[in-house]
Amino acid sequence: MYIASTAVFLAEILKIIACLVVMRYQQPSWHHFVDFVKREILGRPRETLKMLIPSGLYALQNNLLYVALSNLEAATFQVTYQMKILSTAIFSVVLLGRSLQRDKWIALVLLMIGVTLVQSQSMGSSSSPTNPTTTTAAAPPGTLEDPEDLLADALIKDDDDLGVLIATQSPFIGLMAVITSCISSGFAGCYFEKILKTSDTSMWVRNIQLGISGAFFSMVGMLMYDMQPIREGGLLQGYDGLTWIVVANQALGGLLVAIVVKYADNILKGFATSLSIIVSGVISFYLFNFQPTMTFVMGAFIVMISSYLYGVDFIKKFVPVKPH
Question: What is the pLDDT at residue 270?
Fold first, then answer.
């Protein structure tokens, strides 16, 4: 088991490095690249301060994702986390001034019904939950607004770990972590979208500014809560190849989310993840012995239907229809 807060911190560092690599590729020489960094990043501290709000919320969200995946089955987590679409829709109305038609709100209501059905399996499967006694984990960093799909892959090393993990899972704690993360994701995503679309600053510069603030918050949380285990076992204790894949997935997935937000919007990004529900369910079935009930299947199906109903206008927008 590795320490979750270290993975969140390293993901932010990797995100900054990836953005710097892209920016270097866009500049004709190292001299131009250095001047660009000094001018756009080091020379504009106020712009970096603007990113403190979303980066702080993203740091909170990423850490909560680890808590959620430590207490929920991967497939249950994936569907429940779709509640972020509801919070994103609400904040898009409040912060971005959008208006949603009645059929869109109906789709959101269906989403909540589906999530409730899925969550009922998790809440009923643990008759005597016990709270985890340590902040160490081996999981996800959306996140996740939102690279969650591979985060569960590192939860379990072998069958013995599976038995220990199930014994310490608390579906209620997992649910509370998901709900808080959804609210954080919705607000931070809409705030970030507003900054991206109301400024001519490069998206890569914005992501570096976001990464700097996020790395700061992540480091503070890491030192506050996990200083003792880090002293005892080191920053990279429990890390292996799969762990680094999870960290890279969080970092690069976050950049992919920024691209979607820049050229589409947060709601479309949220509904696009509905397909990953099927993927998570299949992976959990084969790797983690996850046994979905009929209630879970119905709930997941309703979530996917609501995702399609909400995103149908976006599909028509981006996929041209041939005239008859």
Answer: 60
256 Cα distance to chain centroid: 11
C-alpha triplet 23, 26, 32: angle, nearest 5°:
80
Q: Backbone phi, then psi, for 206, in 5-degree steps?
A: -60, -40
User: Is the model's pTM score more than 0.70?
Assistant: no
Of the candidates 270, 91, 51, 58, the residue with the CA atom closest to the CA atom of residue 181: 58
* Cα dihedral sign, 278-284-286-290: negative
Most confident segment among 73-87, 102-116, 120-134, 209-223: 209-223
| pLDDT above 80 for 151 | no
In tens, the pLDDT along 217-261 reads 888 888 888 888 888 888 888 898 888 998 898 888 777 777 776
Please tell me whether the peptide bond between 143 and the residue prior to it is cis, using omega within 30 degrees of 0: yes
Listed in order, strand segments (DSSP E) in 133-208 are 136-137
In whole angstroms, what is the distance from residue 208 CA to residue 221 CA? 20
CB distance 172 to 74 below 8 Å = no
The distance between the two most distant Cα atoms of the chain, rounded to a whole number of Å, is 70
Which pair of structure tokens corresponds to residue 156?
């379990």
Q: What is the DSSP string of 3-39?
A: EHHHHHHHHHHHHHHHHHHHHHHHSSSHHHHHHHHII
169 contacts: CB under 8 Å, gap ≥ 6 = 70, 71, 72, 126, 129, 130
For helices 241-263 and 4-26, angle between their N-to-C axes, nearest 10 degrees: 50
Q: 3 forms bridges with which residues in the sheet?
A: 136
Answer yes or no: are the C-beta atoms of 187 and 89 closer than 8 Å: no
Count CB neighbours of 164 within 10 A: 11
Amino acid 124: pLDDT: 54
